[in-house]
Amino acid sequence: MLSCSCAQARRFCFENVWIREPSCRDFLIDFCSNSFDLDIVSGLTGYGDILSAWGKDLHHLHKLELDGCQATMVALCGYHVPTDIDAFLVAKNHFHELLSLRELYWKQRAKEF
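The chain above was modelled as a monomer; its predicted structure follows.
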C-alpha cells in the first residue's frame, strides 16, 4: 500500500487590521532592505511568513490589552475623583479602539470563507 504525506500549503491572507499598526510598515521596510537579492516570489513568501507570525503575536497582545483595560475599568468604576475618572475614560477609549480592531479583523475573516 502506498502512503502519501502531502502537506497542503497554507494560504497567506493579509489582515486589514495590520494597516493600522505602525510596526507593520517597519517590518516591510526592514524586510525589503534586507532581502533585495531575493526574487519576488521568495521575497513575498518570506514576508508572508514574517507577517503571519507577527499577526499572531499582535492578536495575543491585543487580547492582553483588552483584559488590562477591562480590569482597569472594573477597578475604577464608581470612583468620583477626577484623576480616577480620567484614567477610567482612557482605559474605556483604548478598550473601544481595540474592539474596533477586533471587529475589523472578524469582518475580513467572514468575507473570506
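Helices lie at 22-34, 40-76, 82-112.
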